[in-house]
Amino acid sequence: MTRDHARGRFGARGPVLTCLALWGVVGFGLVLDPSPARADTLEEIFQTGNEAYFAGRFDAATRAYERLVELGVRDADVFYNLGTSYARRRQDGRAIAAFERAVRLSPGDGDARAALDRCRTRLAGQRAEREGEVTIDGGPPLGEALFGGLSENALAALALVFAGLMFGGLSVLPRVRAETWRLAVGIGVPLAAIGLAMSGLGVAIRAGWFEAGSPAVVVSPSARLLEGPRADAQERGEAREGERVWVLGREGAFARVGLSGGRGGWLSRDEIVLLADP
Amino acid sequence: MAPRAMSLGVLAFVTTLVVAGASSAAAQSATLSMSADRTRVQVGEIVRLQVRMDVEGAEASEPSLPDLSAFEIVSRQVSRPMSFRFGFGGQTPIVQSSSVYIFLLRAQRAGTFELAPARATVLGRTFASNALTLVIEGGARPAPTPGADPGSTPAPTGGNVPSNVPPTGPLEGAIYDDQAFLRTVVDRTDPYVGQQVTVTTYLYTRAGLRGSPVITHEPSTDGFWVHDLLPPQRTLEPTSQLVGSTPFRVYVLRRVAAFPLREGELTIGAMSTQLPVGGAFDLFAGPQPDLERTGVPVTVRVRAIPSEGRPAGEMHTGQLSLVASLDRTQVPTGDAVTLTVRATGSGMVQSTALALPEIPGLRALAPQSHDALSAPGDVVAGVRTFEWLVVPEREGSYSLPPFRVPCFDPATGTFSVAESTPLTLVAAGAAVGGDDAQAPSGSAAAERTTVDPDARFGPVRTRSQLSRQRDRWFTAPWYPFALGAFPGLWLAMIALRRFQGRARGAADPKRSAGRLARARLAVAEQAAASGDARAFYSALTFALRAVVEGRLGESIGSLTHAQLRRRLVERGMEEPVAQALVEELEGFELVRFSASGASGPEMQAALGRARERLSMLDRFVARPSEDA
């Protein structure tokens, strides 16, 4: 009855009005779509940071790039700029964290790697001046040593290619009659299997599946390693600025971390920067 | 055996005689040819004339050459690329020898010149080459020697000659010796200060060398900057030259580019060398003692660069161009930038000196320079690169003036100024360390003027995609499907193959019947175990009939036993076998209801017989049915 009533009220124009209403809703939605405005804003923040950097206002530049990170930007160029700005402010711990993130996003970024090395060298030099001598852990992480500049996506693509080659070879092997081709496919299939295993291992390493916790970098010049998640807890030792730690758990304002050499303890969360999004 | 060996020896001797006779008959054959690299030249240009003589069976003699008076003989070179001999000692019959005479001729006057054939006499017979016509066109001035300046006097015997060929004409720069001597040749005798003089030391020797000459005394080059033009590792390749009427082998021992550093008379000293002469097979005379030879010094008159029209500054002799660049043109104040200037040209580029002028607010560290020199075509050229680390200490725009180097081109006798483009450097903001730098305030001023070379971070990147999500393939929803698609397809293919195989088996009546028979035998075994004779024999009958139907490809249900026997024989089964099979079927039907057949041993025996029949039927291939 209601439908009839409505039909009677709008007559034959009912469908037309419905379409117009739908288009109106869609158009309104497009007008309200925040994406273009957001892109402009991000771009503006980025340009503001660059202008501040070239004007020598590195603190303002840092704030702008940090703002981009807070807004969810995960771009290697932004992290590179952030690291550069921190390095100009001689905050090498934070610079190392930013450069590390840039390298994790873009393993082939030679500039970021070079800047990372310069930061570490400068920190080590400062420590050497202060303490007389310093030991630098110069060895690259396992994933980097094994897979160099291959990114996660490149390794994932390689895994696809090797899987295709391996199972394609297995599929055609029973149909191949020529002895030479049988030999070639017979050799190629195990090689592709090895390649598949290696690329899969690379993906797993790059993704941090073998890491005990979330990687982070100590950014405080003097970070106290505590026995428990309290400020008055007994001090167990010190974590150096720029040092890599693995976050194993969180409690309040503290994070339980593991360090190289089997050390562990609690650090204030303000004293570390995570290299991956939690 | 002995007669056979003797006959072989005789045969070899006769063969040798025949070959010798053939070579003797082939003697007195010679071919002469005359050619030029071009037949139409301008007055003053150089043409390359070649006369080649190939003689078979005799030594190639000196040919008589056509009249070349219309030309200046710039160089003459003789080579004997081929000479094959058989035998030992002096009585060695020559199979073939060749001689090539190469003349570089400079056309002196216009006209058409008919070069008469070259002639040679071999064993009393005269052979002639082809004639050649050279057209010399007038109007053009004599071509100057490349690299020579208008006011320069080329060396008397120098000029436009190939660098590995010694100059002809008067034997200057040497003291003649009929065995061996050294000769020093310069390409110009009155260069300007800084102009390249190419100095070549030749070794003339009549005997061959059994080893490399050892230079026992290097020539003095006081007043010169010297650059070696020959590679340190090379092979000595001789050319031939007649000195008077005596042929010599000529080696290039040393070639250097010498740049006079001051005006006046400068002398290139004499070289001394030890020559291991003789052949490697001096078996009878024994090894000859080494020869000691010393060359003669050569003096050049170095002219000062003309003072008229000379621009101020330290002069570069030769050609030069300057290119200046900054690695960054906009930097934060206190940041170091690299200013690079590349000086490219010919001559003593490595002695080019540049100074960065004092610019207030701009501090420059000591420059670093490095050179890259080469000598293509024996002309020394290269690049000198200067690098300054420049630090803007104050905010502002800095204008870097162009660098200038005055040049004198000895080829044209003119002056010029090589000049780079001016550059602008913009420094903005506070000094390195930032407005909230961590450095103590007391040292802030000092830090502004201190450059930490390790702190050269940046500049920041001005472009970014600003991507908000990290695009990780292996976490994308499609990735597991894509990765699992390959093994999935492979397994699907295997399954499809098996299915197809089964389908094929089902379609094949023989295979189907076989499976059916095996199933029935299994039923029969179960019946035997339970003592059900009726079911047992029924299963055996069914199994045999199924296999027979599968083999024949037709139904046998309506046939009597006699008809079945005939049918089997018709389809190719042997009569006794068919008879036995039919009797077995009859027996199974009869015993199915008898008590004797219900015993266990009897059923086991029947099962064994049934298996034998089935095995026999497996080997049976039925002929095509006549009905079909």
> What sort of overall outline of chain A do the alpha carbons produce when their principal axes are compared?
globular
Distance between the termini of chain B: 81 Å
Oligomer: heterodimer
Largest sheet of chain B: 5 strands, antiparallel
Helix residue percentage of chain A: 55-70%
Q: From the coordinates shown, what is the CATH architecture of the largest domain in chain A?
A: Alpha Horseshoe
Structural class of chain A: alpha+beta
In CATH terms, the superfamily of the largest domain in chain A is Tetratricopeptide repeat domain
Please give the radius of gyration of chain A in angstroms: 28 Å
Largest sheet geometry of chain A? 5 strands, antiparallel
Describe the structure.
The complex is a heterodimer of chains A (278) and B (628). Chain A has 278 residues and is an alpha+beta fold. Chain A has 4 domains: 31 residues; 97 residues, Tetratricopeptide repeat domain (Serine Threonine Protein Phosphatase 5, Tetratricopeptide repeat, Alpha Horseshoe), CATH 1.25.40; 60 residues; 61 residues, SH3 Domains (SH3 type barrels), CATH 2.30.30.40. Chain A has 10 helices and 7 strands. In chain A, the strands form 2 sheets. Chain A has a 5-stranded antiparallel β-sheet. In chain A, strands 2-3 form a two-stranded antiparallel ribbon. In chain A, helix 4 packs antiparallel against helix 5 and helix 9 packs antiparallel against helix 10. Chain A is globular. Chain B is an alpha+beta fold and 628 residues long. Chain B has 4 domains: 112 residues, Immunoglobulin-like; 123 residues, Sandwich (Immunoglobulin-like); 111 residues, Immunoglobulin-like, CATH 2.60.40; 113 residues, Four Helix Bundle (Hemerythrin (Met), subunit A). In chain B, the strands form 9 sheets. In chain B, strands 1, 3, 4, 5 and 6 form a 5-stranded antiparallel β-sheet that branches. In chain B, strands 11, 12, 14, 15 and 16 form a 5-stranded antiparallel β-sheet that branches. In chain B, strands 22, 24, 25, 26 and 27 form a 5-stranded antiparallel β-sheet that branches. In chain B, strand 29 and strand 30 form a beta hairpin. Chain B is elongated, with a radius of gyration of 52 Å. The two termini of chain B are 81 Å apart. The relative contact order of chain B is 0.06. The chains are: A alpha+beta (278), B alpha+beta (628). At the A-B interface, helix 3, helix 4, helix 5, helix 7 and helix 9 of A face helix 3 of B.
